[in-house]
Amino acid sequence: MKHLLNGTFTGTTRVPGDKSITHRALMLGALSEGTTHISRPLISADTLRTLENMRQLGADITRDGDDFTVVSAGHSRLKSPLETLYTGNSGTTTRLITGLLAGLKNITASVEGDATIAKRPMDRVVIPLSHMGADITLKDEKYPPVNIHPAVIKPLEYEMPIASAQVKSAILFAGLFTEGKTIVHETHKSRNHSEIMMAQFGADIAVSGSTVTLTGGKDLTAVDVTVPGDISSAAFLIVLALITEGADVTIENVSLNETRSGIIDVVKHMGGNIAITEHDSTGEKFGDIRVQYTPDLKPFHIDGDIIPRLIDEIPILAVLAAFANGESTVRGAEELRFKETDRITAVISELEKFGVSFEEYKDGFKVTPGYGTVKEGELFKGYHDHRIIMMLIVMAIAVNTNIEIDDDSAIDVSFPSFVSDLEGLRKDR
Ligand SMILES: O=C(O)C1=C[C@@H](OP(=O)(O)O)[C@@H](O)[C@H](O)C1
Ligand SMILES: C=C(OP(=O)(O)O)C(=O)O
């Protein structure tokens, strides 16, 4: 597929709903007795997998226009699925559903995804769930399919060995209907959508510093959820606007949850022209983000606590680094090697085709700014990874080059309207 969308990007737009929040709303809706109306969810390949999986467990889910309605008789009425739960390309679905099913105690199920999921480690969730008493087997003790058998589980106190909201959430889902306190300690705080939403659905959950304490055994009550725009999708528009001449883009109603907004801190540090207008909200924070072209950007050096706050934005931040006025570094991001593809290798191998220079580290990279000319006939690889593909499209626009990507269909995983939304903002030069 060829991409050439160069022009000047101006105007006001929205991005699709937050992927992490949409997955959780569908799951908590299925576990709660009553009707959960989900407004402005992300409707994409990944979230439709979660929707279908919740239907297979017995929730009645309908789609009305752009919204979802989940009707459920509650967690105790969910049943073993007749068929394998297919999770497609979605790591979040695969890991969270494993915890959810362990927590239901009487379910037999098999969970399996596509070729990228087959290579993603699931032992990181199965180890703590097994400590809780869950009976789960994996291929080679590490990979899907995940086979879950009925078991009585008990609460757990767990020290997280890695920063992962998927692992934390799987433990919390398992703990929801277990008598006693499930306690998770984090070293670097990961996204907290499960904690916020579980409290909204009536779970007894408290957060103190980097410790989450969930007292299980409470039935959940259905509540409505309005999903803010996904900052991980907005990130592609933010970077595009910063690096293309004349750009002035406002993205409305984007999640500003502090466990997700690391990219805003980085852009501010770089001296990027970015303005945030926060709206009033009681749950998840959200607001509007205006970004304008900024010709002189400082480099950045990120490591430690900020990494989980921008983990999915690192590919597009590599593009931003190529336009800074000095070398930038990313460290402490080894987790990138366990995403849809090894994102450290993919970022470097594909952006090098534009002439960007990198030094690779085990846990990140150094970017030397600047770029050259793409070789005639160069074929770019998308690695079936939505974030790598969108990164390539933004880079191609910024350097005004028509590139060919082997397969761009994975954009549907998180941002199906990406190309048409860019077209909507583009004015011919
Ligand atoms: O919990 C979630 O919704 C997610 C957590 C992160 O993964 P990890 O938990 O593996 O860090 C992130 O990369 C993923 O896109 C979504
Ligand atoms: C890593 C991602 O998602 P998941 O883990 O759900 O596949 C992502 O969206 O960048």
Automatic annotation (TrEMBL):
Pathway(s): Metabolic intermediate biosynthesis; chorismate biosynthesis; chorismate from D-erythrose 4-phosphate and phosphoenolpyruvate: step 6/7
EC number(s) per entry: 2.5.1.19
What region holds the Enolpyruvate transferase domain?
Answer: 9-422
A GO biological process held by the record: chorismate biosynthetic process
Q: Which CDD domains match?
A: EPSP_synthase
Query: Binding positions for phosphoenolpyruvate?
Result: K19, G91, R120, Q166, R343, R387
Give the matching SUPFAM superfamilies: EPT/RTPC-like
Alphabetic keyword roster: Amino-acid biosynthesis, Aromatic amino acid biosynthesis, Cytoplasm, Transferase
Active-site residues are: D312
Q: Name one Pfam family in it.
A: EPSP_synthase
Q: A GO CC term?
A: cytoplasm
Q: Which residues bind 3-phosphoshikimate?
A: K19, S20, R24, S164, Q166, D312, K339
> Which GO molecular-function terms appear in the entry?
3-phosphoshikimate 1-carboxyvinyltransferase activity
Q: Cellular location of this protein?
A: Cytoplasm
Catalytic activity annotated for this protein?
3-phosphoshikimate + phosphoenolpyruvate = 5-O-(1-carboxyvinyl)-3-phosphoshikimate + phosphate
Q: Which EC class, in a word?
A: transferase
- Assembly and interaction partners: Monomer.
What job does this protein perform? Answer: Catalyzes the transfer of the enolpyruvyl moiety of phosphoenolpyruvate (PEP) to the 5-hydroxyl of shikimate-3-phosphate (S3P) to produce enolpyruvyl shikimate-3-phosphate and inorganic phosphate.
Q: Which NCBIfam families match?
A: aroA (TIGR01356)
The UniProt similarity line reads:
Belongs to the EPSP synthase family.
Q: How is this protein named in the record?
A: 3-phosphoshikimate 1-carboxyvinyltransferase
**Biological source species:** Jeotgalicoccus saudimassiliensis
